[in-house]
Amino acid sequence: MSGDLVELEVLGVRRQSDPDQVVVLLLDVEGRRLLPVVVGPVEGAAIAAGHAGLRSPRPMTHDLLVSVLEACGVRLSHVEVTALLDGVFHAALVLADGARVDSRASDAIATAVRVGCPVRCVPGVLEEAGLPVQEHTPEEQVAEFRAFLDAVDPEDFVRGQDPGAPPGTG
What we know:
The protein is of the alpha+beta class. The protein is built from six helices and eight strands.
């Protein structure tokens, strides 16, 4: 199954104008698609901290999970974004022995950035929710991502509207 999965790069976390809405940006480097995943502010902060390599003085939930896995001698092979159901992303933690643990996408991503394991995605999810990335220079791509982030509303993904498009045009 993992041969069919698409590897994603965690680009970062962006807080929206509504403080309760945060978007995690995942990039399909080969297919040049962006997968925006809407998460809560606490989950977004956990992903951002892990992505930045920040450590809390006391273990947070995802740090605790990583410590438990290490204490049990279990390695996290990768995480998978497995489905998009009713606007909610589903995921799984895949352990080195092949065991799978059902997870929220935000928790899977927060754990993956802490251990440095790959984030992979079922192609159907990317086909449904991925946004094409046009080929530009790196500077143009950064400017385009910033413009997208400034215009996108996490509710766009729930309503099925083209993100960043004016209402009624998606």
